[in-house]
Design goal:
Elements lengths: L2 H5 L27 H13 L12 E5 L2 E4 L4 E4 L2 H4 L8 H13 L11 H13 L6 E6 L2 H16 L3 E5 L8 H6 L17 E4 L4 H4 L3 H15 L5 E6 L15 H11 L3 E5 L13 H5 L5 E4 L10 E6 H4 L15 H16 L2 H22 L3 E7 L2 E6 L9 H13 L2 E2 L1 E3 L5 E4 L7 H17 L1
Parallel strand pairs: 3-13, 5-6, 5-7, 7-8, 8-9
Antiparallel strand pairs: 1-2, 2-3, 4-10, 9-10, 11-12, 12-15, 14-15
Helix pairs in contact: 4-13, 5-13, 9-10, 14-16, 15-16
Bound molecules: pyridoxal-5'-phosphate.
Pyridoxal-5'-phosphate (PLP) binds next to helix 6.
């Protein structure tokens, strides 16, 4: 039991999905930030580069189930999972045990120097659980952006072509190539150019705003691609099956399959960036499964290893093998501790009912957010799948995005002990990414705080 759990023995519950036995409650004993958190925020301002921001001014000391506990003893409801990372819950016991065992064995040999089994086992697991029955291979990296960079390298080598198409509202990371792929200038790109060349942008299906049928929207995108890039020059199309940072935009039915079919017919590698949508989050193991598509390559990270840094590219064996030996890798890629954590996490995803749990959470979110929307015209759209849902806030008179309202609601929620994240090209979306280990009553309480924050805004 953690020190904090020990201080509150009456309220300790064993959440069915693990966590360090923290009391599963919203508990505010100071205002947010409390004095100890404020001290850390002040030190951060002195020591950490200003470009690294923070959403909640708290000094986290423990987390598990559905809460994050701060240094002042406040217990906040976590509706963000550290951006869709702690999907199975923070400090999941199986991950903790696997990490502790591995860290005592060896911490690093470099897989490119002296390989080890856990990396190979993670690759085998990814090859097995990603969409499609074809022969697959994987390569492991440290971060989502690094996986995206490598997917593009592999697609270029395989096709002998250079251009890459990304979509409006897309987010693929913060490195130079992935900044170029990312759509939104502020805060991700502004002032950080010049960007990598041979990147082009196509229009996305955004049903709430374009009102287009999915096939029609896909044909529009394909026309832009054919006219402005040309299939002969195009190595890859990269897309998030459900847009993450861009606003949890779910494309209309038919959009993704039409794009995939066009790629197949034109020798273009179709890359699904499932870094945010992957691993049971949407109520399927991968969001591609929601749309019945089979990507050529798929990038994963975030939820993959229960909080440890790991990322992967998985895909058709003949594409993955196009890069020459020594062409892929990195000092830390597929670190043994991260691999041990991933094997434990994938075991939980597959065998501990995570897909069903994501669907249950999706039903609760759909109900509660739907009721809010019915009663409040400032919620223009509620969308998403499973434990990846969002509400888009608008001016009811004009339908224009209302970023100020969104920011105000999020700020009130955090002050009231509920961590919510915003997103969207127009900054007018609140996204809900609770850990699947959150108890139902805590999720309901968190959503009640959101409703009250909206009512008072
Ligand atoms: C977070 C994210 C990335 C970047 O991952 P990092 O680990 O932050 O580099 C790329 N693509 C998508 C869809 C993401 O959500």
């Amino acid at each position: 039991m953690s020190a904090i759990a020990a201080e509150h023995p009456d309220t300790v519950v064993n959440t069915p999905l693990g966590g360090p036995g923290l009391p599963q409650e919203r508990r505010l004993v100071t205002s947010i930030p409390g004095p100890r958190s404020q001290e850390l925020i002040d030190r951060k301002a002195q020591a950490v580069a200003a470009g690294v921001g923070h959403t909640a001014a708290v000094h986290a000391v423990a987390a598990g189930g559905g809460v994050i506990v701060d240094a002042d003893g406040n217990s906040l409801i976590d509706l963000g999972s550290g951006i869709a990372v702690t999907t199975i819950g923070n400090a999941h016991p199986k991950v903790v045990a696997a990490v502790q065992e591995q860290v005592a064995q060896f911490t690093h040999t470099c897989f490119m120097i002296a390989p080890y089994e856990s990396y190979v086992s993670v690759a085998e697991a990814l090859n097995r659980i990603t969409p499609g029955e074809h022969a697959k291979k994987s390569a492991l990296f440290n971060s989502g952006a690094e996986a995206v960079e490598n997917a593009v390298k592999i697609a270029r080598k395989f096709t002998g072509k250079q251009a890459v198409v990304a979509f409006d509202h897309g987010y693929h990371g913060r490195t130079n190539l992935t900044m170029a792929l990312t759509a939104k200038s502020m805060p991700y790109k502004s002032g950080f150019g010049p960007f990598a060349s041979e990147i082009y942008r196509a229009p996305l299906s955004y049903p709430f705003r374009d009102r287009l049928d999915g096939v029609v929207a896909a044909k529009k995108a394909i026309s832009v691609i054919e006219k402005q890039v040309g299939a002969d020059n195009l190595a890859a199309v990269i897309i998030e099956p459900i847009q993450g940072e861009g606003g949890f935009i779910v494309p209309a039915d038919g959009f993704l399959p039409t794009i995939v079919d066009w790629c197949r017919a034109n020798d273009v590698v179709f890359i699904a960036d499932e870094i945010q949508t992957g691993f049971a989050r949407t109520g399927e193991m991968f969001a591609s499964d929601l749309f019945g598509i089979v990507p050529d390559l798929i990038t994963t990270a975030k939820g993959i290893a229960g909080g440890l840094p790991l990322a992967a590219v998985t895909g058709r064996a003949e594409i993955m093998d196009a890069a020459h030996t020594g062409g892929l890798g990195g000092t830390y890629g597929g670190n043994p501790i991260a691999c041990a954590a991933a094997l434990a996490a994938i075991d939980v995803f597959e065998n501990d009912g995570m897909i069903e749990r994501a669907r249950e959470i999706g039903a609760i979110l759909t109900d509660r957010l739907g009721a809010l929307q019915a009663a409040d015209p400032r919620i223009g759209d509620v969308r998403g799948h499973g434990a990846m849902m969002a509400a888009e806030f608008v001016d009811p008179a004009t339908g224009e995005p209302d970023a100020a309202l969104t920011a105000a609601v999020a700020k009130t929620c955090i002050a009231q002990g509920v961590i919510v994240l915003t997103c969207g090209t127009y900054g007018n979306v609140i996204r809900f990414l609770p850990p699947l280990s959150i108890p139902d009553d805590l999720l309901h309480e968190g959503l009640g705080v959101v409703a009250a924050a909206l009512a008072s805004a």
